Amino acid sequence: MTAQLIDGKLIAQQVRDEVAANIAKRTAAGKSKPTLAAVLVGERVDSATYVRAKGKACEELGMGSVSRHLPADISQEDLEKVIKDLNADKSVNGILVQLPLPSHLDEERVLQLISIEKDVDGFSPLNIGRLAQKGREPLFVPCTPFGCIYLLEQAGVKIEGANAVVLGRSNIVGMPAALLLIGKNATVTVCHSRTKDLANVIRQADIIIAAIGKMEMVRGDWIKPGAAVIDVGINSKPDATKKSGYRLVGDVNFDEAKEVAGFITPVPGGVGPMTIAMLMKNTLRAAEIQDP
Hints:
CATH topology of the largest domain: Rossmann fold
Number of helices: 10
Oligomer: single chain
Distance between the termini: 47 Å
């Protein structure tokens, strides 16, 4: 193996330790405890698991956490009322609406309603708009892309002047990751299902962020020797040797890529732990903005 492994678990733990220390200092000074409210609509198992993990992280770091579990058939009006009530609640610093929402609900309207000072997921059009504009700073950056850039920086990867390829253009990962890289003076290409000669485009990249949701799609011979590879994908691959019958793999063929890349994140244990760590960092920042 030639690539240096970027240990997301270790780096996420360092972020969490720093957040916990700052919260302890904050509460010792008599200031309010940062509190995160999670809104979960319906019974999606994966969404419920994420919300539980976020609540557990809050508890471990000395934060408060509030959960609003709402029925799958809730009306738009009733969901909007929940968001407005949380906006008005001074004891809540961050509001997180677990996506995706059931199809009858207007996701954009819900995200627009969240107060920009409490938008710890960074999905508000106002925060994304600020991220897209030169010379403007968002209050919060979406947690997964924030984690990707943080991993690159902690590994010592030079972003300025680098050719970067982002594979995937979702609102949650691909587009904000591209904007963050541009903000750090990389030259960025965003690839997607219509990109021509994808392998050749990726071969030009010094930095690759793969977030396309296709199992082991990026092959070793697509990667420029020494490139930094951040794999956001989480896919279940059948594996008869595992008790569950499957194992988790990324969007990059890890066994091939690790022989060529300079840096690489594993799946699991790479980007995944960073998402919640950055959410905790954003929630602390929200409390510092609202109650300095």
